[in-house]
Amino acid sequence: MGNKNALYAGSFDPFTIGHLDIVKRALKIFDELTIVVAVSPNKAPLIKMSDRKNLLKKIFADEPRVKIAAWDGLIVDYARDHGITSIVRGLRPTGDFDFEFQMASMNQKLNEKIETVFFITGENLYYISSSLVKDVHKHGGDISRFVPKAISEYLEHKKEGK
Fold first, then answer.
1. CATH code at 5-159
2. Which residues contact 76 (CB under 8 A, 6 or more apart)?
3. Who wins on pLDDT, 8 or 125?
4. Contact in structure between 5 and 73 (CB atoms under 8 Å)
């Protein structure tokens, strides 16, 4: 059997320490993980797509098993085009299950070779979401405890107009 590869897709706007936890845990199971920054047409981005991709490359610069990509189509199409058969998703005890189950089921119908692997969010991180972090940031709150250092530095510079 060859390498076990998976993808982890999301808008990651911003990428949080909850996302980071899922990546670290997925790397215990998979040989390679592609983080796919997906376009979310229903959300107004805090960080533009190219910057999110570059920030992720910076965060994972020392982890050769993590690849970074951007995609504006169906994730199952990206997976098929790149020979990936596993999709990693995180589940928080905040009502994620219904949506994630529906999405995993749809992905399975679109591509029967796709399996979704769920990781339960760590007990100390379950309350963190990109939307809440975005709201705290927009209201001038300190988000440095909730995002990797590269993200908080980027947003601080952006806020200061640098």
1. 3.40.50.620
2. 107, 110, 111, 114
3. 8
4. no
Question: 63-103, pLDDT tens digit by residue?
Answer: 999 999 999 999 999 999 999 999 999 998 777 888 899 99
Angle at 111 between CA 109 and CA 112, to 5 degrees: 75
What global pTM score does this model have? 0.92
DSSP track, the chain: ----EEEEEE--TT--HHHHHHHHHHTTT-SEEEEEEE--TTS--SS-HHHHHHHHHHHTTT-TTEEEEEESS-HHHHHHHTT--EEEEEE-TTTHHHHHHHHHHHHHHH-TT-EEEEEEPPTTTTT--HHHHHHHHHTT---TTTS-HHHHHHHHHHHTT-
Count Cα neighbours of 103 within 13 Å in the Cβ-side half-sphere. 18
Which are the catalytic amino acids?
Answer: 19, 43, 92, 130
Q: How far is CA 11 from CA 72, 112, 123, 150, in A?
A: 10, 24, 23, 17
In angstroms, what CA-CA distances link 156 with 19, 63, 69, 153?
A: 20, 25, 24, 5
Please tell me the distance from the alpha carbon of residue 82 to that of residue 79, in angstroms, as a whole number. 5
Q: How far apart are the first and last CA of the chain?
A: 49
